[in-house]
Structure formats: C-alpha cells, structure tokens
Amino acid sequence: MRNPVDNVVSFFSPSAGLKRMESRARMKYASSIFGGGSDFSFGEPAGYDVPGSRKRSMRGWSTHALSPDSDTLPKSGMARAASRDLVMNTPLASAIMKRINTNVIGHGLTLQSRVDREMLGLSDDYADAWERKVESLFRVFADSKNVDLSATQNFYELQRLAFISPLLSGDLFFSLPWVARKGSPFELRIKLMESDLCCNPNCSGDTYKIAGGIEVDDYGAPLAYHFISHYPIEADLIDFRSRDWVRIPAFDASGRRNIYHLYEKTRPGQRRGIPFLTPVFNSLKQVSRLCDAKLMQNLIQTFFTVFVKDSKGPVSLQPNFSIMDSAIPGQDPDKENQYELGQANIVELDDSKDVTIADPNRTDTAFESFFNAMVKMLSASCEIPFEQLLLHFQASYSASRAALLEAWKFYRRLRTSFASDFCQPVYEEFLFELVSKNVIEAPGFMDDPIRRAFWCKAKWGGSGQGLLNPQNEIGAAVTAIKNNLSSHEDEYTAMSGGDWEATFKRSAREKKLVEKNEMQPANYEGKVE
Predict the structure, then answer these.
(1) What does DSSP say about strands 210-211 and 214-216: parallel, antiparallel, or unpaired?
(2) How many H helices and E strands in the chain?
(3) CA 522 – CA 377 distance, rounded (Å)
(4) pLDDT-derived band of residue 261, with 50, 70 and 90 as boundaries?
(5) N or C: which end of the chain has fewer CB within 10 A?
C-alpha cells in the first residue's frame, strides 16, 4: 500500500511524487541487499552503471522497461513521418535506402523451381520438364502488369516497392486476391497496403486484444487485421464520419492466409515494425543541417554585392552591370526594403541608410573529416560500408573486397527474408491456381500439405555482388570448385546471380553451335587455340 503522504504529494506535484517513489524503491532494494540498515553512506551496491544511478554521467538518463508494443506503437506515426521526410529531403538517407534496394532486389528476384524430386518420386527428366514449364508460365505471369491489382506494375517492380516500404515505414501488408481481368490468363493479383491503413477501429486505444490494428489470440497469433478506408490524416480532413474500418480475418476457413504482414521483428510479441532509419534519425537530421549550413556558407562566399549610397539622391545604374534579386525602389513595393546578396548585385541606398558587411570568408578545414566520421558511424549502424554508401572507392583491393563481403552478408540476409515472406507466398498461390485449373499436374498438391510443400520448393535468384578483380577471383573460384570446397552454383550465384543451371545449359548449346560452325573458341587467357 502506498504511503498517504506520497498520494498527497503526487496529487499536487507528480514529478515530486515520482521522485519519492523512486527513492523509496531504491531504499527497499538496498535494504534487501545489505540487511535492512538505513545508513548507506558507503555508496550503491556493486553492479552495472544504469540510468538513474548515482554516477554523475547517468543522472540525466531516464529510461523505462516497457512492452514491445508500448515501446513502438505510440510513436509509430511520427516515426513513419520522420523516416519519409528524411528519405525525401536528405541525400544521405536517400542514399542508404537506394543502396539497400539496388543490392538486395536490383532488377528483381527470379524464380528457380526446385521440386523435391526424391520425396515426390519423380524422375530427373520429368522433374526438369515440370520445372521448365512452371518457370515459363510464371514469367508470363510476372512480366505482365496485370499481376498488380492496380494494373500499374509488374511483379519485379512490385518487389522493389514491397521491399522498400517496410524499410521506409516500418511494415507493409499485402493480400493475394483472385480477380478476373480481360486479356489476362491468370486471376491471381497482388494488392499492397501501406502501414498507415492498419489501425485500431475508431482510432481507439491499444489493448492486449487489439493493438496497432492487429487482433491476436491468446497465443499472440494474428486473428484479424483492421484497415481504415482512407489514410487517417486524409479522413480527418474530409469528414470524421467518412472513416470506415473493415475487419479482415488473418486466415480463411481452409487455413490459407488472407493478409500477409512484412516487417522485421526485433522483440518477442512485437506486432508492428519500426522504420529502418529510426535509430539514426537524430544523427541524420543533424548531419543534413550541417551540410546545408556548409553549403550556404560556401554560396555566400561567392556573392559580390555593391551598395551605392549618394547624398544627392538615387543614382542611375550603368547598363553593363547585372542586377539580380535586388530591391529596386518603385518597382516592387513588397521588396522595397529588402536587400539580398547575389552575384554582381548593385543595390541603391538613400542617404539615410548604411550597410555593414560581416566577413563570410571563414574556412573550416575540419568539415570533411567530421562529415566522414559521422557517415562512418551511420554506415556501421546501417550495416553498409562507408565506401559503398558514398560510392567512394579509394582503399586498397583487400580493404574494398572486405567491405564488399561484409555488405553482402547483410544484403543476403535481407534477400532471403524477403524471398521467403513475399516472393514465395506469391509463387505458392500461383501454383495453387495452376493446379486448381488443371494447367499443370501435381499429384497430392490439394490433399496433402506436405506434398504441396515439396511441389512448391523454389530458389529466388538476384543480382550478384560483382567482381573487383575478375581474373584473380574467377581463378580462386575455379580452384575452390576443383578441390570440392564450393559448387558451380554457389560461385555463379556469388559472382553474377541468377540460375547457374540455365546458364550451363545455354552455354552447352552455344558450344555446340560454335563447333558446328567450326569456330575456334578462346581459351582462359583470351588467346585463340
């Protein structure tokens, strides 16, 4: 039970009451450690230096241990707004997002069907033919803009949008409805829904049952998602009564998903994601302001303005002088008393005015080193090497290659997650449509979920990391393959991306064509044999 005095103090001064409660809690803790004495002049018990301790550097640090939802949901709207503003208006934030999107998605992840032929009891010839047919049909599906419910993007363009949206806004929702469309051989469509649209009905407060627009069961699994008909800010501007919510169950009666949720979970029980740049918001904004100030300083140093003052009255300017953005008496009443610096400006002043020019020619030799230090810190936080973020490659070969290898650990992780969470569900639903319409045969697909999983196995290839020194790196790859330390597919994927098996078959056909026409192929050193 709380002390009555604490209740009174808290009523009139919550901050003072909070301090009394904190002191009482600390005293209770110390008593449990040291046996209940009231004199602890010898200091705090040994342990970690945490916020709120007596250490001087920790006194101004206030923290609270909250649940995942309490830590993220109350500030999620402001975090999304800040993230979008930084990416739209800050070159460094834009560079981070573009660098990640280009390396992870690039021109788009392509399907490589890999059915489990052993578990399905398929011969290699049958499995090869089945995979080629499915891949050909999927290319027809993916290349068309009809794959998008709004009919504006093909599958590979949707990949870039679906990947960047969770990084930018924290998360993304999508569904896979079937909508017939004239001229399209497939009915499967992809509908992307931005994170702002998922929110609690009537903008009510978060509870354990519904928080952030997501309704969960007793185990924390999603039961339903609540979506608003308009963006919340736009609905407020239009009419409060025009805001309508729709509740969409997470799964249908057969167990298939109605709504897919893309976000990175950093804590157990976390329902919504946070923008990728959230930990570096403050640093990015301050670096941007510093760059703007430095740019303005350098710009001012290029200005040269002449102020003319004549006690006899206004002077007439010579026609060979340039007047740019200066106030000319009598021509613009709104600017009559405004004087601006500019390139070769001449501004007339009457005899009652004077001007004093502050020296703008200040030098800041430490700016570049400070800027680079800040970018290195931001790069480390975002797992992007400094050289790659700024596209500034002046280090040694070994240092550049080490940076590239570290970056691709991060990119591959993101690519694997995205392929599993976005590309694979689309492919599985695509196969479901093909099998249900008897376009392809897949025994057991509809009846046995395990056999369906075997039929749906696939890899998703994308662009490779590239080569810094092709001759040395290809030679090392050949050596690794010969000594059974790597495979052709692994090395091909690392260098170029894509499907090694398809490339090998195409290369074999080209070799036959070369031999048929009696052409002499070039050897590894580039010499004709």
Answers:
(1) antiparallel
(2) 18, 11
(3) 47
(4) very high
(5) N
* Amino acid 360: pLDDT: 58
Within a 10 A sphere around the Cβ of 274, how many other Cβ atoms? 23
Of residues 383, 419, 424, the one with CA closest to residue 404: 383
* Residue-range domain boundaries for the chain: 76-91+132-277, 295-357
Contacting residues for 4 by C-beta, under 8 A, at least 6 apart: none
Question: Are the C-beta atoms of residues 162 and 191 closer than 8 Å to each other?
Answer: no
**Measured between alpha carbons, how far is residue 109 from residues 105, 112, 159, 419, 498 in Å?**
6, 10, 8, 8, 8
pLDDT more than 90, % of the chain: 45
pLDDT band of residue 359 (cuts 50, 70, 90) is low
Give the DSSP letter string of 139-192. Answer: HHHHHSGGGBTTSS--HHHHHHHHHHHHHHHS-EEEE--B---TT-S--B-BEE
What are the strands, taking DSSP E only, across 292-331?
A: 304-309
Phi and psi angles of residue 262, each rounded to the nearest 5 degrees, phi first: -100, 115
| pLDDT of 1 higher than 80 | no
Reported as a single tens digit per residue, the pLDDT across 99-125 is 999 999 999 999 999 999 999 999 999
Q: In this structure, are residues 391 and 385 in contact, taking their beta carbons and an 8 Å threshold?
A: no
Q: Assess contact for 270 and 276: CB atoms under 8 A.
A: no
Residue 172 near residue 162, CB atoms below 8 Å: yes
Question: β-strands 343-349, 214-216: how paired?
Answer: unpaired
Contact of 315 with 348, CB cutoff 8 Å? yes
DSSP summary character for residue 218: T
Strand ranges across the sheet with 210-211: 210-211, 214-216, 222-228, 245-249
